[in-house]
Design a protein that fits this description.
alpha+beta; Jelly Rolls; Arc Repressor Mutant, subunit A; 39% helix
Length: 241
Amino acid sequence: MAEEETVKEKKSLCSCSEMPVSGTMTGLCLGHVWIFESLEPAEVQALMGAAVRKVYAAGQAVFAQADPTDRMFLIKAGRVRLSKLLEDGAEFTLDIRKAGDFLGENMLGEEAVYPVTAWCMEETLTCGFTKERFEKLVLDHPRIGLQVMRNLSKRISSLTNRIESMSLTHLGERLYRVLRNMALEHGVKSRDGLVIEFPLTHEDLAFLVGAHRVSVTRALKELKRTGSVLQQKRHLVVRSE
């Protein structure tokens, strides 16, 4: 019973529902994000009380590549595309983030600028902190900073294991897994499978799987041949394994 009351207390602190947005809002609150796990109720209250909420229009950049890393936030509603601009002017999609995803944790590291641009694919609501605001919060509540450091360490270990696993996987399997995960997060159900309703170039896929574009083209062709992936005009349909 006490645990249920604590959860209700945490949820009641969230004021994001007061912000007018057109899309569906996630039930996940800032105090429940992985980076802030294991905080005490009073610390969660301080965390959410210090958070800044902002609505962005479709096509607007939350932050741009080479901007100072001065913000981190939870996507409460909407969808964000992370893209990378190369020196030759080519731009590639690296990832798509949805409501419930957290962005900008590199604000806590040594990097001075964002390595990518975050474009809003639709109206988007964010809830988070500027660097200045978060540093003040940690000075007032030192245990928040300590717990964030512990959670970041766990995250790094988890990502290291994932990278090691990817290096041992056949490219075709790796590409299918990337497409499958993207379809599960962003796809729409159809009788043929899960439809990824935004276009993905072979260059985009090459960045997502960490392989050369020509190799990805070959692997995608094989997935289509075996029926694991279907092409419907500009959209990809991912079938069940």
